[in-house]
UniProtKB/TrEMBL annotation:
Belongs to the UDP-glucose/GDP-mannose dehydrogenase family. This is UDP-glucose 6-dehydrogenase. The keyword RNA-binding does not apply. It comes from Flavobacterium pokkalii. Keywords: NAD, Oxidoreductase. The keyword NAD applies. It catalyses: UDP-alpha-D-glucose + 2 NAD(+) + H2O = UDP-alpha-D-glucuronate + 2 NADH + 3 H(+). InterPro entries: 6-PGluconate_DH-like_C_sf, NAD(P)-bd_dom_sf, UDP-Glc/GDP-Man, UDP-Glc/GDP-Man_DH_C, UDP-Glc/GDP-Man_DH_C_sf, UDP-Glc/GDP-Man_DH_dimer, UDP-Glc/GDP-Man_DH_N, UDPglc_DH_euk. It is an enzyme of class 1 (oxidoreductase).
């Protein structure tokens, strides 16, 4: 089967970058990314590719190269479904906020809507690719919807989870550790797998393309995220012990990371992991385990999230305690709001929870983030429903200049590891702060010795 047209439903952090790279690497395939969100599609089509809705290093250049040639962003969902031979589903699968499984299970309503839409529109055989992260055995539900409401056409469902990390999405897509494709074990299923393998083989060497059955592929994605998050919670658990014992968590991480069985990556102690995936996917895993009655399995993984919540709360408690047990009317300058550097994404960022705690203590929070707008910051706080929007707006001041943000502050808190924070003129910041001038480095990126020499009271994580 020669592929000429691909459609992707969902123009978000995964659909957008992934399809841009497929279009760049496969100029012979027309790639159309569709979304119900008109504003988002409009931004993807902005004449100036610096204004596309997602900030990722290198992405705007790829979009500039492929857009209008063989990469299209559109709200015409039905047309794109109708024309494509392969349809990627890359819609959001957030944690359920209602009903059975509330706060734990993945909400699959957007997935189901896509399946029903495809069933309604498709008039010829299609390959449906699960790009979203889904509970194991979701392909079964999708197949059932397609087979029962379709127009008698054949659908093959593949699972092709995405492993990109935000901030490095383009590099991860161009040079992935592996591509995972799960499909049905039947002859037709194996043929469909081969079709998708050939798309990726345009730039990924075949020994990195792994094919499995559908269930292994679906479960591998949840497992990978659980293992990654578990490393962070493990090192964060040690950071608290380090603070009590005089050990330094950076030294401990280096020492254990040199053991090739452990490895050195993903061992940075921090104020806690954020992002749209880790917490959501682990809670989903916990829910699935419980639904099979596997309570010990569920409890084991839930502890990763419990530890992460503890780490965030510990950070805000420590600020209050260190500032003489009160931050009421004190100015706390936040450097960073994004959940990690090099992204404008703030979903589940530790900064949101730390700010919420400190506002409860009546602190004034002054935020500077190079890529996050005031509107987004306030929306993040409003989402927690801790207080009214007006109260949130009164408690948050934003500047697009870090020096202004830190002026007259009682403390600076580093919440995101943006490179630029390291380069600042810290003497200048110190001179304009209240004394004693405190720094709470939630990312262990600043130079403790140099800052203490200037006069700061410095506290990192785990040292
Ligand atoms: P996102 O919220 O940024 O994008 C999803 C998009 O889908 C939205 O723009 C939404 O409007 C659109 N959408 C929802 N229902 C639709 C419908 N019926 N028709 C058309 N458009 C629809 O989400 P994301 O971060 O791109 O994540 C998508 C999936 O990929 C999730 O399952 C997530 O777990 C997974 N994932 C995310 C990442 C990441 O780093 N963000 C990495 C790997 C996997
Ligand atoms: C993650 C997975 O890495 C990726 O494979 C998957 O596809 C989506 O989820 P992402 O959430 O975008 O990617 O970023 P990641 O680099 O994993 O960081 C997640 C959070 O963990 C961030 O808040 C980051 O700051 C934090 N982190 C990461 C640490 O605190 N310490 C570390 O050592 C690494």
């Amino acid at each position: 089967m020669k592929i000429t047209k691909i459609c992707c439903i969902g123009a978000g952090y995964v659909g957008g970058p992934t399809m841009a790279v497929i279009a760049q690497k496969c100029p012979h395939i027309q790639v159309t990314v569709v979304d119900l969100n008109k504003e988002r599609i409009l931004a993807w089509n902005d004449e100036n590719t610096d204004n596309i809705p997602i900030y990722e290093p290198g992405l705007s250049e790829i979009v500039a190269e492929a857009r209008g040639r063989n990469l299209f962003f559109s709200t015409e969902v039905d047309k794109a479904i109708d024309e494509a031979e392969i349809i990627f589903i890359s819609v959001n699968t957030p944690t359920k906020t209602y009903g059975k499984g509330k706060g734990m299970a993945a909400d699959l309503k957007y997935i189901e809507l896509c399946a029903r839409q495809i069933a309604k529109i498709a008039k010829d055989n299609k390959i449906i690719v699960e790009k979203s992260t889904l509970p194991v055995r979701t392909a079964e539900a999708i197949k059932s919807i397609l087979d029962n409401t379709g127009n008698g056409v054949q659908f093959q469902i593949l699972s092709n989870p995405e492993f990109l990390a935000e901030g490095t999405a383009v590099q991860d897509l161009l040079n992935p550790d592996r591509i995972l494709i799960g499909g049905d074990t039947s002859v037709e299923g194996q043929k469909a797998i081969q079709v998708l393998v050939e798309v990726y083989a345009n730039w990924v060497s075949e020994n990195k393309i792994l094919t499995t059955n559908v269930w292994s592929s679906e479960l591998s994605k949840l497992t990978a995220n659980a293992f990654l998050a578990q490393r962070i919670s493990s090192i964060n658990a040690m950071s608290e012990l380090c603070e009590q014992t005089g050990a330094d968590v950076n030294e401990v991480a280096k020492a254990i990371g040199m053991d090739s069985r452990i490895g050195s990556k993903f061992l940075k102690s921090s104020v806690g992991f954020g992002g749209s995936c880790f917490q959501k996917d682990i809670l989903n895993l916990v829910y699935i385990a419980k639904s099979y009655g596997l309570n010990e399995v569920a409890d084991y993984w839930e502890q990763v999230v419990i530890m992460n919540d503890h780490q965030k709360r510990r950070f805000s408690n420590n600020i209050v305690q260190t500032l003489y047990n009160t931050v009421a009317d004190k100015k706390i300058a936040f450097l960073g709001w994004a959940f990690k550097k090099d992204t404008n994404d703030t979903r589940e960022s530790a900064a949101i929870y730390v700010a919420d705690d400190l506002i409860n203590e009546q602190a004034k929070i002054v935020v500077y983030d190079p890529k996050v707008s005031r509107r987004k910051i306030l929306a993040d706080l409003d989402y927690l429903e801790t207080r009214t929007s007006e109260e949130n707006a009164d408690s948050i001041i934003t500047f697009d200049n870090p020096y202004l943000s830190c002026e007259k502050a009682h403390a600076v808190a580093v919440l995101t590891e943006w490179d630029e924070f390291v380069q600042y003129d810290w003497q200048k910041i110190y001179d304009n702060m209240q004394k004693p001038a405190f720094i709470f480095d939630g990312r262990n990126i600043l130079n403790k010795v140099a800052l203490e020499k200037i006069g700061f009271v410095y506290q990192g994580i785990g040292n």
